[in-house]
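quick one, two chains, predict together pls
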Amino acid sequence: MRFVDRTNETDAARVKRRDRFSVRLLHVLRSDRLGQAALVFLVLIVLAALLGPLVIGDAATHANLGKRFVTPFDPQQGAAYVLGSDALGRSFLARLLVAARTTVVIAVLAVVASALIGSLIGTVVGYLGGRVDSYVMRIADVMQAFPSLLLALIILYTVGPGLVPLIFVLAVARMEVYVRVARAETLAVRERLFVTAARALGAGPIRIVLTQIAPVIAPSLVGLATLEFALVILSESALSFLGLGVQQPDITWGGLIAEGRNYLRDAWWVALLPGLAITLTAVAVNVMADVVRRTTQSD
Amino acid sequence: MTAFIMQRARHGALSIVGIVILVFVLARLTGSPARLYLPEDATADAVAQFNVQHGFDQPLIVQLLSFIKGTLQLDFGESLLYGEPALNVVLSRYPATLYLAFVSMLIASTLGILVGALAAARKETFADKICRVLSLGALSIPDFWVGIMGIALFAVYLGVLPTSGAAGPEYWVLPLVTLALRPIGIMAQIVRTSMVGALEADYVRVAKGKGVGERAIVFKHALRNAAIPVITVAGVLMAGVVNGALVVETVFGWPGIGNLMVAAIHGRDFAIIQAVVLVTGTAIIILNFGIDLAYSWLNPRIRVSG
């Protein structure tokens, strides 16, 4: 970006460029060491989750009973066993990478689904108001008061565990938050002059919500979604730990912890490392959420 | 004031009806509820007989009405695992969870308020930064993993604490730490934010001008006014404590409803699951009603806007 020739840039174009979300985000990041570290860590996790399984081949499923519970950082065992092995002698590094992919994919899909649907509902009821609005908010109240894990457990019990039901319950359990925030933001924007102008020019409700309101309230929803991402990773790991998440042969970090729980005496790393991965990812996401929040508040 | 209380009571009652209907819909989603109530290897004859006996062959609306009637009479069905009314089993397990939840909330709010208030008073210093990193960590760490690591370190390797169960005080240490960690983090961050605002208020400047000591300013003047957002969070945190209890009780074999719920899921005991969901949901809605009352009593302005 630094090498772009901007000598002929007009003032209007410059203001527009500086106003872009990504540019302001970079500006906030420049002076924030913790934020930079968090971003680098998250990029590494996503790259490892996407590319890792291609590099390691079938190491994650290749059992070798001669190499049960190899201790991590043992130089004689080679690169595949740098993080030790599990009860079946599978490379634990490979297991962690495969689990990272499942964990990240589940969290991303759940967050995107609940953010999109929840924000849409919140914006529409906020704009329309009236009876629909109060019914939807009553439902949101019930969902807020109700323990999300309890809701997830009963749904997964009746529908049965699996990848799709898991994403579904994670998305539904937190949708209420987006509805609430999108509605509150819409109420604040609804009476502003540009919305009235659009209405006077004959724009219908759908057009106004999509072209006038959505762009204004989007930044705070993006901030919220980043914050929720950490929470979804934690909820997913808890559900997988309880045995209601994805089923074998699929595995997530939470599922690895549940496995490791049986071998605490023989192999501490099987339970320790995936928990460390969850914690670091959640911390990094929370730090990034803070960066996003400061970016959106700086205008 | 009365109008506000009535409105909140009506919302609460509606929410309880909502939860009852939700449980009914979920139970009927899978087709015949006989599949949920009976063991997995039940014969077709047993299923048919069960359906007739409990009226599951009736039209849905009749089933809904009789379900609501049963719920009003506090009849949640018979537990498959324990062979007695599900409500009795659930109520006998509740005290253990409530003790644990109460003590851990007490620890969490004391520590959270203390840490948050001090961080706000020492804003932008090294101590404040440490507090922020620690509370961020407490928020981000999976609670069940803390529990397992605690067992590995203190019970398996060092052998100073028991692995699971509930008897003497030593059985309380690990579950309490595990359950309190996340609320401490949330509380500390919220108290810090609202205290930073309160410490910049005019009345604090006046108190400073009068020569009031720093401790009195932080803990008497500012903290009292910063308490309102903390009370609103308390309701959300209660739901969080039930979430925490589900996993923490499983990890430590604590004889409360979390443990019961997970056992019921693995033992396919739907009557218990239904009773836990209805009792917990109702309790939390009543609790939130209480919080609304406390909130409106502390902050008269919100009564007007409702």
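The mean pLDDT of chain B is 81.
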